[in-house]
Design a protein that fits this description.
It is a single chain. This protein is mostly helical. Helices cover 63% and strands 0% of the residues. The chain is elongated, with a radius of gyration of 28 Å.
């Protein structure tokens, strides 16, 4: 009874803490302005199945894609076993699903164990890639400090959780073989069954202690992992699903026109449509801070896995320029967290003389972008750093008139001559007279 009470309290605390942080992140995402992303629901659900569930983009690199899929599938499928652990903890039972499922239960646990060893091995490989082979995209400066620690910590945690699961099953099976009345024989598990004979020489009390300790550490570790996710880049495990659903269905590379600019052009050709002076509103061009971005832009920032594939594919970054799409997403997320702290302290946002543009993301970074869409194409969960870059660059150019001389010359020519060149439209074909 005491164990049941402790377990129920542990579960309640874990759920409350997770819900509190999840609500905060939801509020942060809603700091952005509204954006209508309703569309073809069939295509949207297809994106969820292919990108979020199927990990389609990861399989451009088959070996890495397969290992990532094993970790992902293991996380989703093995945690079905958590349901049984939770019910056992609440009702004081042991392997509640064993009797209803019969022989199929052994098959299910066998499948979980195979996945567990796959997850364990894949995590070891990924740790080696990050810390021994030191792949270039994992060595960028934006990952210095906590981001790099975060990635290693989550891999080590998964190794520990899978090891606890296998050890728990091994001790359980050894107790079954000893005929312990509380541990009924449910058949030989495929991996833990190989380890169980080596544990049979231990006393029943020692084995029970090992099994219970692993059981408690396993479920406590999962609850801790659940509450760690919102503070980690690994929150993409959950956010990848809504992010894939709301992925843009527009043709790749299509730029969103600004409604205010379209109206100004209409007024140029049809002045009678222009509002009276009293009704005119000064439009705001682009985005200077997170409040000017859409909620989808902010959802992208929280969904970022920090894998760096966007940066590795960026032509500007490859040639040594400052642009780093991964850093763009990390900076946006960091700014949201800073704004949230400001709101907590003051009750509402109080101007802190900082903005996403300039204080986090520099002019040089934005100017380096060629709008090629390589970062969007490469992202496993179809995040779009390019949308944020567009909005910030629009503010830079249209609000601050901050652009290189060459750009300003081109803008002036387009405005006056309707083309990037300095020639008048009437003289544009003058060169033909010399033929």
């Amino acid at each position: 009874m005491i164990q049941q009470i402790l377990f129920i309290l542990l579960t309640a605390v874990a759920i409350v803490l997770f819900a509190k942080k999840a609500k905060e992140i939801y509020s942060n995402i809603n700091l952005g302005h509204d954006e209508d992303l309703s569309g073809d629901s069939g295509k949207q659900w297809r994106n969820v199945l292919l990108l979020a569930l199927g990990q389609k983009k990861m399989f451009r690199y088959p070996l890495v894609g397969m290992m990532h899929f094993v970790i992902y599938a293991g996380f989703i499928i093995i945690n079905i076993e958590v349901l049984e652990i939770v019910l056992d903890g609440v009702f004081g039972t042991h392997r509640m699903f064993a009797n209803p499922l019969g022989g199929f239960y052994t098959f299910v646990i066998d499948f979980f164990e195979i996945l567990a060893i796959g997850v364990l091995l894949a995590c070891v490989v990924f740790l080696i890639r990050r810390n021994v082979l030191k792949l270039k995209r994992f060595m960028k400066h934006e990952l210095d400090g906590w981001p790099r620690t975060d990635a290693n910590l989550i891999l080590i945690t998964e190794i520990i959780l899978m090891s606890l699961f296998l050890t728990m099953n091994s001790a359980d099976r050894a107790l079954q073989l000893q005929g312990n009345p509380h541990y009924l024989d449910h058949g030989n598990f495929i991996l833990s069954g190989l380890l169980a004979p080596s544990l049979q020489n231990l006393s029943s009390l020692s084995l029970t202690g090992i099994e219970r300790t692993c059981w408690w550490l396993h479920i406590t570790g999962i609850f801790a992992f659940l509450n760690y996710l919102p503070y980690s880049k690994h929150f993409h495990i959950l956010l990848a699903f809504p992010n894939a659903y709301y992925k843009s269905l527009e043709p790749k590379g299509k730029m969103e026109n600004m409604e205010s600019v379209e109206k100004e052009v209409q007024y140029m050709f049809k002045p009678e449509l222009a509002p009276a002076n009293g009704e005119a509103q000064t439009p705001k061009f682009g985005a200077k801070d997170i409040f000017d971005l859409s909620w989808k832009n902010l959802l992208d920032a929280y969904t970022c896995t920090e894998c760096g594939r966007c940066t590795a594919a960026c032509p500007a970054n490859i040639t040594g320029k400052l642009l780093n799409p991964r850093k763009i997403m990390m900076d946006t997320r960091d700014r949201m967290e800073e704004v949230r702290k400001n709101i907590k302290i003051n009750g509402s946002f109080k101007d802190d003389s900082k903005t996403l543009l300039h204080n986090y993301i520099t002019t040089e970074e934005l100017r380096a972008c060629t709008s090629c869409n390589a970062c969007v194409e490469e992202c496993p969960v179809s995040i779009s750093p390019l949308d944020i870059i567009f909005e910030l660059r629009r503010s830079l150019v249209m609000e601050e008139s901050n652009a290189p001389a060459e750009w300003n010359t081109m803008f002036s020519n387009i405005e006056n001559n309707f083309a990037p060149w300095k020639f008048s439209p009437d003289e544009r074909d003058k060169w033909t007279s010399e033929l």
